[in-house]
Design brief:
This protein has 288 residues and is of the alpha/beta class. 35% of the residues lie in helices and 19% in strands. It has a domain at 4-150 and 178-207 and 263-271: Rossmann fold (3-Layer(aba) Sandwich), CATH 3.40.50.720. Strands 3-2-1-4-5-6-11 form a 7-stranded parallel β-sheet, with helices on both faces. Strands 7-10 form a two-stranded parallel ribbon. Helix 1 packs across helix 7 (181-193). The relative contact order is 0.14. The mean pLDDT is 89.
Length: 288
């Protein structure tokens, strides 16, 4: 990688911390890491405490950077694109989510509006970078795991730690491809090392396809447990949209456990020689 100065937003997120750890071994790389909360010092990392959602903050942060790695929520970046016009940024790597494909028609209004805002932000960023000839990679990760702080796999792990019974809907047959935070970090580094040109949007999936029931069973296995799957009446889950909003998100989530969420591998990942690991968690990776 050429000598470079990277601005990383969302640095205290699981993916952000994994990337910072990997970047510490990269020569000729200066990193400014942005977080809302004060963080412990890391060798070679310049921590900046700032609220990225505050208008105008981005402009000051970008003055000396030539690459932006954005992990702080795509709509936040889209809202500040005008601040990029006076910067020297030549490459942007931004994290979106594969949910823009899998939750596009969510029956939950709040979730649907969030997904729509992310999809709009993707398009705004693509249009902006195309007009200014900035290299752009928008990564859509699948289920993220490995740091013990994600909202899906670790959430199941916390349930498994206290409950033997796990609710089941139509056999939990939907396929998944969980991706490890360290593999996402290595993908970002490979994108910077090759200085990938042009604009692309692609899914970054884990190296193994397994169904939801298998995924849950492996999480329980880290605790030397076997789950007792409790089938829920289909009519309860199928009518999720008609239930109170307090339980609707949980029922909608259960509905998706029977849907396949797998993706074809983008040829760019082969060009980068990027290969993610399978799903083989231990307690540390699950935050237990």
């Amino acid at each position: 990688m050429k000598a470079t100065r990277i601005l990383l937003t969302g640095a205290s997120s699981p993916s952000g911390m994994a990337l910072l750890s990997a970047l510490q071994s990269q020569a000729d790389t200066a990193v400014s890491a942005v977080s809302r909360q004060r963080q412990n010092k890391m060798s070679g990392i310049d921590w900046l405490q700032a609220d990225f959602s505050t208008a105008g903050v981005l402009a000051g942060l970008m003055k000396s950077a030539d690459r932006l790695v954005h992990m702080a929520g795509l709509p936040l970046l889209a809202a500040e694109l005008k601040e990029l016009k006076s910067s020297h940024i030549r490459q942007i790597i931004a994290f979106s989510t594969s949910s823009v494909l899998t939750k596009k028609y969510s029956p939950n209004r709040v979730e649907s509006e969030l997904i729509q805002s992310i999809a709009r932000a993707e398009q705004q960023l693509l249009t902006f970078c195309e007009s200014r000839n900035i290299s752009l990679s928008i990564i859509r990760p699948t289920l993220i795991w490995g740091a013990g702080r994600d909202r899906n796999v670790s959430r199941i792990a916390r349930w498994a730690a206290s409950q033997r019974i796990f609710p089941s809907y139509r056999g939990l047959s939907g396929l998944r491809q969980p991706v490890h935070v360290e593999d996402l970090a290595s993908l970002v580094i490979r994108l910077m090392q090759t200085e990938t040109k042009g604009r692309q949007v692609f899914v970054a999936a884990g190296g193994e396809i397994l169904n939801y029931r298998q995924m849950v069973s492996r999480i329980y296995a880290t605790l030397a447990k076997k789950p007792v799957f409790l089938p829920l009446p289909a009519w309860i889950v199928d009518r999720a949209v008609h239930w109170p909003t307090s339980i609707q998100p949980t029922l909608v989530m259960l509905q998706r456990t029977r849907l396949d969420m797998v993706f074809e591998r983008n040829p760019l990942l082969d060009e980068l020689d990027w290969h993610a690991r399978g799903f083989d968690p231990d307690q540390q990776a699950l935050g237990l």
